[in-house]
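Discussion board: Methods & Data

I've been asked by a reviewer to show the raw model output for two of the constructs in my manuscript, not just the figures. I'm not sure how much to include, so I'm pasting the format here to get opinions. Each protein appears as its amino acid sequence followed by a line of discrete structure tokens. Is this the kind of thing reviewers expect to see in a supplement, or should I convert it first? Here is construct A:
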Amino acid sequence: MADQSLIVAELKRALRERGLTYAAVARKLSLSVASVKRLFSRGDLSLKRVDQVCELLETDLSEILAQARDRPAANQLTLAQEQEIVADPKLFLMAWLVLNRAPLEEIVRSYKFSEREVLRHFYKLDTLKVIELQPGNRVRLLVSRHFSWRSGGPVQRYIHQKLLREFTASHFVGPHDEFIFHGGEVSDAALGELKQVLRNTARQCAEVIERDRVPRENRHGAAFVLALRPWKFSGFNQFEREPGV
């Protein structure tokens, strides 16, 4: 199907906006929820099933495709955009929240911001072309679902200096914690494969977060880190044999 990835991404977005779950889609398609999740994860939707999902959304394929094509595919912000965001801790928090699809009402309810203060920061993010503020104070993201901060950019540096140090300051021993560290000597080709695996995993993790629509009082903060680099522990250097010896 032409533009299949665009269609699947837009269907997911439309389902979220209308508060429709995979369970609702499963009932419409006469499938299990697990089967629906696999279909959306793989982008393996036939034209008939796309039409059925459109019926559930009370729209049609032409409208879905038009909306998908109208959406920008920016995966990163500019250096200037990031500098403005990270220079203001409140604006950085607001950007973090909207990128995680938090609505205005939830922000006001959960943080020490009045509605007016939240809107002021929304206007700033709108000016920076991070979001588009729509009627009813709804937010449309102007970045793709695979958005990431610039490598080595202002926000990533801030994350390394502040967030990551705090995140790794204690041992991962809690019942919901997970820490896996593994390494080995690999070729450049294998290193490239590992990078792709990590990117795919990051997207899957982001999708899990996006699908989680339980009430906020039943949610708690969580974070995950995926990292890869050519690296050797400096403490082993003294034991390495010199080449040719």
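Construct B, same format:
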Amino acid sequence: MTEEAPESGDDGVSDSMVRGMVAEIKPEWQVTSIERSPHGTDFVGILSVRTPEPKSVVIKATTADFVDPVIARSEPRLLELVRRETTIPVPEVFGYCDDHEHYPVPFYLMEYVEGANYEGKHEDLSITARERLLREAGENLAELHDLGPLAAPGKIGIKDGELRVLDTDDYPRHEDFREAILAECEETLDGLSHGGFYPDLADDPERFADLVGDLRDYVRKHIPTLSEPEEPTYCHWDYRIGNLLIDPDTGNTRAVLDWANLSSAEPAYNLGQTEFYFLNPVADGPSRTNRLRETFRTAYADARTDWSFSESICERIEMYRFTCRLGAMACLPLWYQDASPEERNERATEHRAVVAQYIEK
């Protein structure tokens, strides 16, 4: 995109604002072109700059209401932590701004990384490439989890300029992680009663309402009886293909993105989430699903030599996958707002079939 591009997009961030934000962080840089990313909910721009040598960088600013600023401010700091303390591939951060009178905050500048995004295009990846992604996911999450333990389960945010597990009215800590998961499920089920988390987008607000009673009985019965969780640590709650930049030739992960909204939780929670996002038993069948799961778990266990998939941990992982399913049901109106009614009905039928396996036990 060249200088003749539109002055601003639907996000309300003008080109002059972008240049001003860059100047706040890197006053010596000159912006020569701005390309607006169509992906994501916040403003993301790919910029050509002179530093004085030409280079491509990315600017990200919080412009939507999905992430609270106290949480969003943690993202560049988490990227710095992960880049400094692990081998997980993440972009270099060039600087950030937490507060500003005129610009959407927080915003930050980071390295541009070449790579393909396969969001919604799982079918374009070979089984070999998917195995490689899962193997690398296991290795990456093992390194991330070894950065703990943290003080308590909760949300990662910024307090006094530092990364902290928050303890506020909006983001309370829970001494017992099982209490946190049950509270999250109760909130999700409340939403499912009237259209999910995004009722304004729901074409059928009562799509799952008939299931809420049985689902609520299930989580109230089984979550409190789960075995004792492990100590909490950093968990990338949205580790999925859509947040990876992938080498289209080799399938290697070039960058792991979206480090806002990290949780402090036990490792099994993060493993359950990642398996939910990467594994699709309905499409792949049991044999391929088990093969992919084994690839992921073996890589994780090999990277954490003092850790193993015990029976109790596997039981908690299964429950966490179930809670992710509830979240996906509540997010269906947003995730499939551009899909056809047939596609939305297909996903709803899949969700119903899976949760039925739990509540009918």
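Answer (T.O., handling editor elsewhere):
This is acceptable in a supplement if you add a one-line summary per construct. For B, something like: Confidence is low (pLDDT under 50) at residues 1-6.
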